[in-house]
Write a structure and sequence with these properties.
The protein has about 250 residues and is of the alpha+beta class. The protein has seven helices and eleven strands.
Length: about 250
């Protein structure tokens, strides 16, 4: 998040990120329960990469430090347990309750937001488009499929009600192969989310999409938009994680 953003957005973010760390930490402790002490010396609870949560070291940013201090010890819970506080840069107006497969929303009802967030529409990747040549697609996608030969066509074969692609098919040497939507997007770094469509133009595939990230939970640019409307930190969090409560971290650890 940007240091110059309103305090309410930074504070809401601080609580969400802290909650994510706590939930990940608890899950790691459960996995490590039966490990030998020597094994634990070489394990990590949380990776400092997008696998968990990117961390680039300490800083001297006063506004972010203030947001952390103002929310010190606070986390989000559901039924007394820390939530899986997913977050992304921009949800692109997606409605998570309409998503299928990626998250078990029965186990995480606080991620099943049934209404759109359009407060992130001032972000540059709320709407986006990128074009790949078929040749550019061939190396990463055919490599994932462990197939030799160029890709000659791509099509979307399955979407959920939120518009997120669940399944692509690619044609290699007159044979069609299926690639899961999230995997296909992960292989092509210019694609910002699974909520997209495509058009073939000669030897090029033009992708048009919405949002930047997995489109669940806290929307950073949406929080910025809500804070500019003078929403409080607590109200912002309730918008993105409906049905949750704030608790002190020492109550659950």
């Amino acid at each position: 998040m940007v240091p110059g953003w309103p305090a309410a957005a930074l504070e809401a973010g601080a609580i969400a990120y802290r909650t994510y760390v706590v939930t990940t930490l608890r899950a790691a402790r459960a996995r490590h329960k039966n490990k030998l002490r020597d094994e634990l010396l070489y394990s990590h609870d949380i990776r400092s990469t997008p696998v968990h949560q990117t961390y680039k070291g300490t800083h001297n940013c006063k506004s972010i430090y203030s947001a952390v201090q103002a929310t010190k010890g606070l986390i989000l819970t559901h039924r007394g347990e820390p939530i899986v506080a997913l977050y992304d840069a921009c949800c692109g107006g997606s409605i998570p309750a309409r998503r299928v497969g990626a998250i078990d929303l029965d186990k995480a009802p606080y991620l099943a937001r049934g209404y759109a967030c359009n407060y992130c529409n001032h972000y540059k990747f709320y709407n986006w488009n990128h074009t790949y040549t078929l040749q550019e697609l061939s190396e990463p996608v055919a490599g994932y499929l462990r197939k030799k030969g160029p890709i000659s066509a791509v099509k979307i074969t399955k979407k959920d009600r939120a518009g997120a692609v669940q399944e692509f098919q690619v044609k290699i040497r007159n044979e069609w192969f299926t690639v899961p939507g999230a995997k296909f997007v992960a292989l092509l770094k210019k694609l910002r989310s699974c909520t997209l469509s495509l058009v073939k133009r000669g030897s090029h595939i033009e992708f048009t999409g919405k949002g930047d990230g997995h489109q669940y939970g806290f929307c950073q640019w949406g929080a910025h938009g809500l804070a500019r409307k003078e929403w409080s930190c607590k109200r912002i969090l309730q918008f993105y994680y409906p049905g949750t409560s704030l608790m002190k971290i020492d109550q659950v650890l």
